[in-house]
Design goal:
With 541 residues, this protein is of the alpha+beta class. The protein starts with a helix and ends in a 5-residue tail after the last strand. The N terminus is likely disordered.
């Protein structure tokens, strides 16, 4: 034990000396960029930044200091939080591969998924994305609509059975618990032509593994975990891998266990898909298309086995948990403003479908699309994204930046190694783009003649940055948007949703767990939850 402590202490000292050395090597300073004051050299602004509900501090700082904010990280390091559209465009669209992800966060993601698309950089990222793209195009995503409708319909039947067994013909359901299982079943069938059976089996091992995964690692942060996360982004990846191997953090236990289990599932599916391809039985699910595309590549440009397994792990989690959380926030807003729920239901029922829905039907439901866009705008599941300048750079600015010296800049030089936090949450509430009521959930903004527009083209959907943008935009965004449409149509069309008490609105919290998580303020330790009362939707004149 004493040897372990001595080794950890020595390593900590080396890390601190390394960080100090790095800082003095920089020729360019960002110290005159305005930002919040900090009373702690050790923690900087990190405690306030990571303990607050997702996006809350971002809103305050961007309102006070503008589109570029300097914040203090642990050990006195200066970092930038950006919401300026032109600066974001430069980092993610223009010079995407010159701004890799910080090492600490990449190491955590790699521990969960393996060497997948989300942690690949440069040429490796281009190579993997090229192979994966055939499964995520517009036609491919639309072809999975029957799968989404089927999963949502199965969930609806489960709820109808619960209601039928209740004397008052209503029941209380945990929205994230049920929807995450339905979306897991949907991703299983669409991505792998495989039945996970999460809705039918309440003890489904894979669903249980993914429950509260990000919350267990990042939620309810302690001072030591806040300090560790801040310092980790400064440490070389090889050192972090060494630390994870010999000094595994207790908070990472859930990630290590999940990766081991999901990779075993992935390996079996890869074997089955490869045999099917060789026997000429290949299907049109996403993973079959990936395996087929990978086999058509030259050996040096194809994916290695560990990379293929990592892509599957990424697709499963990113393809179901993010959508489930987005839908949970949508139902929260529909209960908070019942008139929106009624209006949406009226549009759904006006379609009077006697057959299955098609993607074209959704195109003719403008209020449905407006609700989806507004949910993604107000509640971006990845509320912050992180990058680091790979070299000295100059960030162009849409809005002039006033330094604390009084100097006004139209572009900002930054040194190599500058850590950048892009606040998706704050950008999505930019009043110059989304209107003076940008802090309000209002689907009508998308139906006005002056629908949200920006002087700078950003993102892939509605000028939002929810799915990021550029070379590293979310590869499955069309898939996610269509799935949200399908679930809202099926569930809002059949059920009425309401809070179980008058305190539900004020007690609801957007937990900052890297992945925005719906929690209850008085029960944060329980992780993701939102319980709503549901009943069969009544016919309204």
């Amino acid at each position: 034990m004493s040897y372990t402590l001595a080794s950890a202490s020595a390593l900590t000292c080396i890390v601190v000396l390394y960080l100090v050395y790095q800082r003095f090597q920089r020729r360019i300073s960002i110290s005159h960029v305005r930002g919040p004051s900090s009373s702690s050299w050790l923690y900087g602004n990190w405690i306030e930044f990571l303990e607050a509900p997702a996006g809350e501090v971002d809103f305050r700082w961007s309102e006070q200091f503008g589109g570029i904010v300097r914040i203090k990280a642990p050990l006195g390091e200066d970092r930038l939080m950006i919401t300026d559209p032109k600066a974001i465009q430069y980092v993610y669209h223009t010079a995407s591969y010159r701004f890799p992800k910080p090492t600490g966060r990449s190491a955590i993601i790699r521990s969960l998924f393996g060497p997948g698309l989300t942690v690949m950089e440069g040429h490796d990222h281009k190579r993997a994305r090229k192979i994966m793209l055939p499964g995520f195009g517009g036609p491919e995503s639309r072809s999975f609509l029957p799968v989404f409708i089927g999963a949502a319909g199965k969930l609806a039947q489960k709820w109808q059975d619960l209601i039928a067994s209740d004397a008052q013909q209503m029941t209380v359901v945990s929205i994230p618990w049920w929807i995450s299982r339905a979306t897991l079943d949907a991703i299983g069938e669409a991505a792998f032509d495989y039945q996970f059976g999460a809705l039918d089996n309440t003890g489904n091992a894979l669903a249980d593994m993914y429950t509260n995964l990000f919350f267990d690692v990042f939620g309810l942060p302690t001072k030591s975990s806040i300090l560790s996360l801040g310092i980790a982004d400064e440490i070389p990846l090889s050192v972090i891998n060494f630390l994870f191997r010999y000094f595994p953090p207790r908070r990472m236990a859930h990630i290590f266990e999940t990766n081991k289990f999901s990779t075993s599932v992935a390996r079996k599916l890869v074997e089955d898909k490869t045999v099917a391809l060789l026997e000429g039985r290949s299907r049109r699910d996403i993973f079959s298309l990936l395996v087929k595309a990978n086999h058509s590549e030259k050996k040096e440009t194809g994916l290695e086995e560990k990379e293929v397994l990592a892509q599957m792990n990424t697709i499963i989690l990113a393809g179901h948990e993010t959508t489930a959380n987005s839908l949970t926030f949508a139902f929260f807003e529909l209960c908070k403003q019942p008139e929106i729920q009624k209006r949406l239901r009226a549009e759904i029922r006006a379609m009077e479908k006697t057959s299955d829905y098609t993607a074209s039907d959704f195109d003719n439901m403008p209020y449905l699309t407006a609700v989806v866009k507004e949910t993604l705008r107000v509640h971006p599941i990845f509320y912050n994204t992180f990058r680091v300048a790979g070299g000295d750079e100059v960030l162009p600015l849409l809005n002039p930046l006033t330094l604390d010296t009084g100097e006004v800049l139209t572009e900002l030089p930054i040194p190599k190694g500058t850590k950048i936090i892009t606040s998706v949450a704050a950008y999505n509430r930019n009043k110059a783009i989304f209107g003076e009521d940008a802090d309000v959930f209002n689907p009508d903004r998308w139906l006005r003649a002056d629908a949200p527009q920006s002087k700078v083209s950003l993102g892939v959907y509605g000028n939002l940055f929810t799915f990021v943008g550029g070379a590293r935009s979310c590869i499955g965004w069309k898939f996610a948007v269509l799935e949200m449409h399908a679930f809202l149509v099926e569930l809002v069309g059949k059920f009425e949703f309401e809070f179980i008490s008058s305190t539900s609105v004020n007690d609801f919290r957007r937990e900052a767990s890297q992945l925005m998580t719906p929690t209850i303020e008085s029960e944060r330790e329980k992780g993701s939850q939102l319980s709503l009362r549901i009943r069969a939707a009544r016919n309204e004149a």
